[in-house]
Design brief:
Layout lengths: L1 H19 L9 H14 L4 H8 L6 H7 L3 H4 L2 H8 L2 H13 L1 H11 L3 H12 L8 E2 H10 L4 H16 L9 E2 L12 H7 L15 H14 L9 E5 L17 H6 L3 E2 L14 E3 L8 E4 L1 H9 L3 H16 L1
Antiparallel strand pairs: 1-2, 3-4, 3-6, 5-6
């Protein structure tokens, strides 16, 4: 008996040493994490019925983490990123959408102060005009990202916003699908963006950025307008630089008048001088480095980067808007 107690005691000591040894921290338990989330959501006013429907039997999706580590904005050059998104097919489709929904777009453009071509370009870049909105259940995607430690706090907040959206009846849970990161609908709004900017433009009592084109286009315009969009100028332009241009002058943290950029030898890509507008103080950016394409960018470029913090994304939207306009 004494020997058995000693063996058991030794095993207990070894277990305690393992659990509390440096570097031996146990992985978080998903079921415990999920219960804690449910309690937080209930305290935020989300109904038990919605929580039961949304969270019952849910599990993280490992492929979501893989997508998170391979985002194209960080694995492609700007030239590759823009070329893959501003294709001839997308330009032509954008022109068709601008014509087909012209009356609605002009009405929304006047109301929010946003040129229709930019609304169409965002629609095109984000979801190919509603063709590719994502087929991953948004709640499951956000549960996965919130449980992952890399950006847990951010995605936990987004998950709570998504549960509020479902609880308010804007979209049925089985239809609430989107990208691997939880971006939703034809304008790919994150849940917090939906709650802050999406609008019921068709007046049916629900905000439906999955199926209602008026809601999609007006929500995009509302987002731009409320973040400082200016409808009296464009996003920016590609430019050519003199051979002796100092790359230290590039960066969004530096602004100069167009007259100053002209004096430094910055020119339009056709070699002509830049237009002179005293009210504009653009920045010059070199997204792919000093030996690649340069751009002068205005306030609207900065607004596009609030939408998506990627210079490649903002250049792609601006480029598509100009190509659509040319039609």
């Amino acid at each position: 008996m004494k020997k058995r107690i000693t063996v058991a005691g030794s095993a207990l000591v070894l277990l305690i040493v393992f659990l509390f040894a440096p570097g031996a921290e146990a992985a978080p338990d998903f079921s415990v994490w999920l219960e804690d989330l449910r309690e937080e959501a209930a305290a935020a006013g989300i109904s038990a019925a919605t929580l039961d429907a949304a969270l019952e039997g849910i599990e993280p999706l490992p492929r979501i983490i893989k997508y998170d580590r391979q985002q194209p904005e960080f694995t492609q050059t700007l030239e590759q990123y823009v070329a893959s998104r501003v294709s001839s097919q997308r330009i032509e489709r954008g022109r068709q959408m601008l014509a087909e929904h012209g009356s609605l777009l002009r009405e929304i453009g006047r109301r929010y102060g946003v040129q229709p071509r930019f609304i169409v370009a965002l629609w095109g870049i984000e979801s190919n005009y509603g063709r590719h909105t994502g087929n991953i259940p948004v709640i499951q995607a956000l549960v996965t990202m919130a449980f992952d430690e890399r950006r847990a706090a951010y995605f936990r907040r987004e998950l709570l916003h998504a549960l509020h959206i479902a609880d308010q009846g804007h979209i049925a849970l089985e239809q609430m699908k989107g990208s691997w990161a939880g971006a939703m609908g034809q304008c790919q709004f994150m849940p917090s963006t939906f709650r802050g900017y999406a609008v019921d433009y068709d007046g049916d009592g629900r905000i439906d950025i999955w199926n209602s084109i008026p809601d999609v286009l007006a929500s995009a315009a509302n987002y731009l307008a409320r973040n400082g969009w200016k409808d009296d100028h464009t996003w920016g332009r590609p430019v050519s630089l003199p051979a002796d241009f100092d790359p230290q002058l590039a960066g969004l943290d530096q602004r100069k008048s167009l007259r100053s950029w002209n004096a430094l030898g910055v020119r339009r890509v056709n070699g002509r001088a830049l237009p002179i507008r005293p009210d504009l103080r653009p920045s010059l950016i070199l997204p792919d480095g000093p030996n690649a394409q340069a751009f002068l960018v205005y306030q609207n470029f900065r607004v596009l980067m609030i939408w998506n913090r990627s210079q490649a994304f903002a250049v792609a939207v601006g480029t598509l808007a100009e190509r659509v306009k040319e039609g």
